[in-house]
Records
---
Amino acid sequence: MAGDITGSPVFLLGRLAVVPDLSGALWLPDERTLVVADLHLEKGSSYATRGIFLPPYDSTATLARLAAAIHRHQPARIIALGDSFHDRAAEIRLCADNRATLKALQAGRDWIWVTGNHDPHISGAMGGDTAATVDLCGVTLRHEPDEGETGFEIAGHLHPAAKVRMRGRALRRRCFALSPQRCVMPAMGAYAGGLNLRDAAFGPLLGQGFSAHLLGDARLFRIDPRLLLPD
């Protein structure tokens, strides 16, 4: 741990300082960069096309959460780590108000869409630039964690969540998974869900020396991995 900014722990991935944010975003103070993962905009409307009807407000709620994090940190750059749009037609379904919100959030700052498996192509109509990966201070930012990565990495894709027992009851929350080499970020999308950190998919990525940082109601909770429960 390298220090503390506004009550949030600061960690180092190589030379890059990273601060997990209660919103599910990752703040890089030295780079004035806010990283978000798995917004899954228009997931609700995607389900509706298959006859599964959910409240159609997930994109609005997700963008509001993102806007609050941007307002709090005032970043010069946003990097969205893939699956920002739930499918290839999500851009078309995004309503005019949410398009306007997105445009306002992009104003005056750099914006990079890292492509993901749900959104391998993002049109210029969504603003910003696109990239397969981004390198910052020797840390690779990508959508899907790479087991073969020998350096440092920030990724999304797996939607990590942790289940623990607190005050006599089981609690399951989205979380950051942090190891000396890697940060796997929680999904920010309102309907994105989460994969339990005890799942075998995380084993080769995190090893033994990792910690889980649960998104609480008012703060983050750092949890020893030995306390994590299966679903």
---
Amino acid sequence: MLSSVSMISDPWFYAAAFPAVLIVGLSKGGFGPGTSLIALPLLSLVLPPLQAAAIMLPVLCAMDLAGLWGYRGLWDRRNMAIILSGAVIGIGIGTLTADYVSNKGVQIIVGGVAVVFVLQKWLGRSGTEPTQPNVAKGLFWSACSGFTSFIAHAGGPPLQVYLLPQRLDKTLFVGTTVVFFAVVNYVKLIPYWYLGQFTAENLGTAAVLIPVAVGGVYLGIWLHHKMSDAGFYRFVYIFTFLCGLKLLGDGFGLL
């Protein structure tokens, strides 16, 4: 019932939340993929991390619907068959091990992988040929993505380790990640509901943030189409590197 839904009233929460969800919306729309990792740390300044994650999940699901419409039909079907299978495996592992896994440990591992991956790209040989979809690699990295997305909403870097070397058309790349994370986020609704995280306050607060988030998605789509492929990939590698450093800093307690 609408009359029974409450929401957070602290103005400091919204001072952090509105820019956080706008940034995530831009990322979901294809402008600066990876910057969504900023959202949870911002919200965690004013809320317990688990509550922040629970509020963000319905917001992410609403963004996914906007992203699916904006990139409808623009995704790589060969990759999708591989990575969705891996994602379900990773979410299942995350559900079974959530009580035993350190969130900071996950942040350190994911951050380390992202930083090493980008440094290898920047410092390695230039002119290497694009890779092709690979079942073993795709299942492994997408399972890692599903797992880290469930535990810490940090599924971007593992998936990018698999997809970026393929050098897909930038719109195909974003569309593929949009579909992937839409499925991941909607599957995550089940265990989050089972764990009792969707309280009236959390859902009411998420509803207030959704219009800002969806607006951010469409702004991100518009900005995405203004960029060249080369500029887009340069942007993604830089943000993957910065997000990796951010995760390492969070994991080691430096930020």
